Amino acid sequence: MTARAADRARYDRATAHLDAPLAIVDLDAFDANADDLVRRAGGKPIRVASKSVRCRALLERVLAKDGFAGVMSFTLAESLWLARSGFDDVLLAYPSADRAAFAELTGDPKLASAVTVMIDNPAQLRLIDDAREGGREVVRVCLELDTSLKLLGGRVRVGARRSPLHSPAQVADMARAVARRPGFEVVGIMAYEGHIAGVGDAVAGRPLRSRAVRLMQAAARRELAERRAQVVRAVRAVAPGLEFVNGGGTGSVQFTAAEDCVTEIGAGSGLYVPRLFDNYTSFSGRPAALFAQPVVRRPGVGVVTVLGGGYPASGAAGHDRLPVPYLPEGLRYDPQEGPGEVQTPLLGSPADDLLIGDKVWFRHAKAGELCERFDALHLVEGDSVTATVPTYRGEGHTFL
């Protein structure tokens, strides 16, 4: 029996009493992935990206481990909810225009001390001040650095379009704008190198593209390491009380951690290891989060139909954004239909061994987005479900 076949047998036994659709997290794999992230971080703390987990119980589990500290959230409303729930170090990774939430933040000393907001434009400071409604608490501010690699005098850009702050001078100017405005304090710098951390460099069947990605990433790492160090020096000259410099992502943990100026690493997807992380040379993890769909039809030889399953991930539309049938091994989509809104035909010889009601296990393309489809995660240890915990959705929150 292959390792994957053994996992399928375990998952089927563990969930035999549960009807699909359902989602699980294999805690042995989850914990092993957490340990690997800590190993790669080389002693620097990892701030957990909540968008890649979207389950309070699992955020608490990983933050209880040595090597993890703090949460990187994705909306201000989520940040406040987490702070009220006992998370005392929440970095909002994206700028917000949620005026009602800013009014809450600036009017509550507990929330203001626990939450740090992201800024890359003076207009964001004005929006916060206009939203205060009398709130006088000092807002903790993190400045985001644009990590993109610019070539040919800026005519070629590689990297996500995030912050407009690219040069040390631009980031330092933003720090001065914050320092001049009462009620704000610069406490951190963040730089997410998505073109390094979030792009696979070993795509099956595409050796030339994979080599090109590795060359690009090596050049981008060198350029960013030098520029990030310059940015940190420039900002410390304005804000000597700087508390943290956050960088990285699951795919670049060990490289970013090697930079002296970086004090902490941001990562989250590496806990679940979705399918997009199968194509990396820098690390390998164990798939920990899966979902199961039930077989509801057997249209013919070599084909079964499962209920639902059309759960595409965000990003540029493409085959790599689709979940993949994972267990039993050997199933594939019908190219005429793909994964469907209410039903999904699956082709391959393993279909002939599946009965009505059997489970087919899938892996989502991205990490936390799986939890937008399910209100609970069944936590599997060995061949048993030892707990069932709510996702954000199960607690009545979607945030985005």
Name the descriptors.
400 residues; 24% strand; 2 domains; 8-stranded parallel β-barrel; 9-stranded mixed β-sheet; alpha/beta; globular; Lyase, Ornithine Decarboxylase, Chain A, domain 1; 12 helices; 32% helix; TIM Barrel
Protein topology:
Layout: H1 3-14, E1 22-26, H2 27-41, E2 46-49, H3 56-63, E3 68-73, H4 76-84, E4 90-92, H5 99-106, H6 109-114, E5 115-119, H7 122-131, E6 139-144, E7 149-151, E8 156-158, H8 168-180, E9 184-191, H9 194-197, H10 207-238, E10 244-247, H11 253-257, E11 264-267, H12 269-272, E12 289-300, E13 303-307, E14 324-327, E15 332-333, E16 343-347, E17 359-363, E18 376-381, E19 384-390
Parallel strand pairs: 1-18, 2-3, 2-11, 3-4, 4-5, 5-6, 6-9, 9-10, 10-11
Antiparallel strand pairs: 1-12, 7-8, 12-13, 12-17, 13-16, 14-17, 15-16, 18-19
Helix pairs in contact: 5-7, 8-10
